[in-house]
Each structure stands twice: as C-alpha cells, then as structure tokens.
C-alpha cells in the first residue's frame, strides 16, 4: 500500500467511488448552463459525457470539482462535496484545462510542486511520468510542450494522488491519432482497474470507441443515458431500402399492411417501419419482383444529430449574432 501522507487512509473499501449529481443547476445571470440534471457515474466504467459545444459539459465538471458553486442542487464525489474531501488529489483527479500550466517549470518540477503541496511522496512523480510516457521530456520546460504532451502532463497530474475517480474534459481535443489512441487506452486501463472514469467530448464517434456508458447533454439538460450501444440504437432507425420495377404496387401493398414508405428516387422505396424480411414477404405475397432489398444502418453522426439536433446552441450554419451597431440600426 502506498504511504501518501495525506492519502494514507482513503476510504476505498467503505465507500463506492462514484459521482452523484442531484438536481444540479448552474445559472450565469440569465444563462442557464446546467439545468436541473441528476446522474450517477459508476466505478469500473468509462462514462462518456457527450454533447455539442456549449451544452454544459465543462460547467458540470467544474461544479464536480468545486471550482464553481451550483445555483441549485448538489454534486458529490465519493459521497462528499469536493471541498470537504480531506485529500482531494487522492480521491479525484481532473484534467480540465491543459493550458493552465506554468510555462517556465519543467514537467517534473510542475508535478513535484503539486505532489509536495498535497502531501504526496515525490517518488510518485516518477511513476506518473513513466505512466504517461513523459520520462524522456521530464526536464523540459512545459512552455515548449506540444498540445499532446500538455494533455499527457495534465493526465499525469490527475493520476498523481492515485485517485479512484478521474475526470477528463475533452482530453482528445487537438490530439494526433497516436495521442487519441493513448488517451483511449489509458481510460480503458484506468476503468479496468476499477476506477470511475468520466470523460467529456463533443464527438460521438470518439465516445463510441472510448466509453462504456454515455450521458448525453444538450442545452444544459440530460437528453439520454445508458450503455453506448443502447443509446446509439435508441437514436437510430435502420432504414430498409427496396428497389423494384413495380415500386408503385409495392408501396400500395406495404401501405395496406400499415407500413409507410418514402420514394427517394424512381423505382426505390425506403421504410423505417418494418424489417427487410417483412418487406420481402409482403412483396412475395403480391408476386412483386424485387431487384434489391437491403437494411441500411444509420451512421453514428446521424444518431448524434437525432439526439442533440434541437439542443445545439451553436451550429456551423447558424447566423452570427448581430453586432451591437447593426442591432441598433435594425
Ligand atoms: N463563466 C461563465 N459565464 C457566463 N456563461 C458561461 C460561463 N461558463 C459557461 N457559460 C455558458 O454556459 C453554457 C455552457 O458552457 P460549457 O462550457 O459548460 O459548455 P460545454 O458543453 O463544455 O461546451 P464546449 O465544448 O464548447 O466547452 C454556454 O452557453 C456558455 O457560454
């Protein structure tokens, strides 16, 4: 057992490490960033916190870490408010903003300072440098670090107290494929050790590869949650596409059976209301010739849009807010 001075008696066996939010709300003036959300994050899993830009992910994570005060509701880590944790770094580690590093220090100096001020034995610094692959650059000033190295250093700092709960805000943002793979494998490894890993992203494809569970947020509200496969399945309808020289007859036969169709192009029908087998059976029963019968699986992006489409605060196509002068003229 490690002898972290301030971490010597983490209540690991007695308490289940988890994050629990109840009716959590944060308003900034008239802006509601987080809107009465409740959730629990379980140990031994990677939980993805998925939502478009401005959905409220960072705010929620800051509330968990006691960096902001909720307007209403509560959020606890390991059954305690963050500010009441006796050795916070040993219970929860977070990567919230990798840019907030002191430029003139070396990576080792940065971690050593953090260890000393939190009563963590300095030998742990070498362990986390090693775990995050930073040993070869440990003496370099963090000022010269690439984004990927900065993210690794942020994760090294989060791991310093060997905490059971880890919170990473958009850790793969701006990373190259190798960095993304490393973050993904690191999260998996930490969860496999029984830790609670809570990781945010605005990319569903990334979350599908990294997370076991998803918590989907839009405009400050939880839109859905559950195992990744279930969340994706619930947001997607398989589309059956059928091509026939008798498309009009087939459409009539399907409609009679209560199956609505669309005709995206001449001679082709699509439906989300019946599986391919049923469409084929109805065609056969009416002696209708088919040239093609296939099930198309909706893409992850489609599932994501289905989930968050109406809850996106900013979209690429949305018109920019008018400038004050323009607004005054209007
Ligand atoms: N300190 C603040 N003052 C005012 N509004 C804020 C503040 N922090 C966040 N907001 C607003 O709250 C909403 C949620 O922001 P938040 O950063 O939590 O979203 P996010 O899901 O993390 O998005 P992103 O991925 O873009 O960081 C946004 O509309 C944001 O502009």
UniProtKB/TrEMBL annotation:
Superkingdom of origin organism: Bacteria
MF terms (GO), sorted A to Z: ATP binding; ATP hydrolysis activity
Transmembrane segments: none
PROSITE patterns according to UniProt: ABC_TRANSPORTER_2
ABC transporter domain sequence ranges: 19-244
Keywords recorded for this protein, A-Z: ATP-binding, Nucleotide-binding, Transport
CDD domains: ABC_BcrA_bacitracin_resist
Gene3D superfamilies reported in the protein's UniProt record: P-loop containing nucleotide triphosphate hydrolases (3.40.50.300)
Record flagged with keyword S-adenosyl-L-methionine: no
PANTHER family named among the record's database cross-references: ABC TRANSPORTER, ATP-BINDING PROTEIN (PTHR43335)
Name of the protein in its database record: Abc transporter
UniProt source species: Actinomyces glycerinitolerans
């Amino acid at each position: 057992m490690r002898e972290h001075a301030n971490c010597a008696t983490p209540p690991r066996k007695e308490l289940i490490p988890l994050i629990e939010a109840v009716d959590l709300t944060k308003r900034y003036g008239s802006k509601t960033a987080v809107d009465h959300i409740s959730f629990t994050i379980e140990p031994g899993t990677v939980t993805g916190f998925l939502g478009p830009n401005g959905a409220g992910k960072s705010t929620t994570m800051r509330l968990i870490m006691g960096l902001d005060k909720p307007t209403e509701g509560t959020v606890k880590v390991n059954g305690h408010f963050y500010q009441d944790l006796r050795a916070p770094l040993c219970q929860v580690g977070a990567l919230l903003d990798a840019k907030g590093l002191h430029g003139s220090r070396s990576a080792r100096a940065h971690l050593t300072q953090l260890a000393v001020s939190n009563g963590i034995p300095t030998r742990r610094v070498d362990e986390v440098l090693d775990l995050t692959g930073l040993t070869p650059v440990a003496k370099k000033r963090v000022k010269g670090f690439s984004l990927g190295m900065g993210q690794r250093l942020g994760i090294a700092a989060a791991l310093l107290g060997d905490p059971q709960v880890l919170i990473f805000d958009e850790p793969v943002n701006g990373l190259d494929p190798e960095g993304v793979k490393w973050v993904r494998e690191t999260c998996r490894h930490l969860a496999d050790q029984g830790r609670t890993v809570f990781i945010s992203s605005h990319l569903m494809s990334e979350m599908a590869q990294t997370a076991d569970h998803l918590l989907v947020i839009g405009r400050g509200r939880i839109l859905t949650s559950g195992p990744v496969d279930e969340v994706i399945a619930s947001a997607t309808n398989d589309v059956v596409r059928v091509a026939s020289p008798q498309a009009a007859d087939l459409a009539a036969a399907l409609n009679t059976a209560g199956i609505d169709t669309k005709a995206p192009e001449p001679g082709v029908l699509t439906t989300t209301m019946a599986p391919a087998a049923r469409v084929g059976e109805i065609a056969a029963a009416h002696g209708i010739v088919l040239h093609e019968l296939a099930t198309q699986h909706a893409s992850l992006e489609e599932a994501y849009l289905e989930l968050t489409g109406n809850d996106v605060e900013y979209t690429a196509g949305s018109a920019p807010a008018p400038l004050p002068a323009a607004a005054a003229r209007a």
